[in-house]
């Protein structure tokens, strides 16, 4: 039977199941988390679970995708830089929105990025960022300019830096606010950009920061 993903009841059920998964992942290895444990924690019947997912692996894949879909829908925006025409707009990440969103959903991102359980979340996050960065690099560099550093190396460098920064921020208990992290990341990326790695401009988002100076 087809499931309407936009039905409020469906959204509520999927959110409850994702929260249950995150809760259990903090306490058990992923291989020890059964469908029964997930449904009992979410207070949802097994029958309801199987209306939405084929099995546990299907649920985990879908949950990871939904988490990333929600993240990118909140943080991506059209860039106002580079003097591009409307036909050649390019999307970038708003660092402010990204850190605020991760801060508001710290329990989810912490367990998925800093837990030994393997759900493939890091790889999915990396690949999504890589796709956006590839598009960004091709537009900004117009596929014509000779790059000082190959595009694939720039992508690997800036994504690893961003995800590593987020992971350590979460692992350290977010001792800095999202506002402080945004300004700090902006300063570091600006410094790197001055060294000839233009792809870091992708982690910008707003033409003028609305954040207070730190």
Total number of strands? 3
**Helix content bin:** 55-70%
Structural class: mainly alpha
Strand content: under 5%
Largest β sheet strand count, sense and barrel closure: 3 strands, mixed
Overall residue-averaged pLDDT value: 85
Radius of gyration (CA) equals 19 Å
The SSE order reads: HHHHEEHHHHHE
What coarse outline follows from CA principal-axis ratios?
A: elongated
Distance between the termini: 54 Å
Which residue ranges are poorly predicted, with pLDDT under 50 across at least 5 consecutive positions? 207-214
The largest beta-sheet arranges its strands as 1-2-3
Given the structure, what is the number of helices?
Answer: 9
Question: How are the secondary structure elements laid out?
Answer:
Blueprint: H1 8-25, H2 35-42, H3 46-52, H4 56-75, E1 76-78, E2 91-94, H5 95-104, H6 106-114, H7 121-140, H8 151-171, H9 178-193, E3 203-204
Parallel strand pairs: 2-3
Antiparallel strand pairs: 1-2
Helix pairs in contact: 1-2, 4-5, 5-6, 5-9, 6-8, 7-8
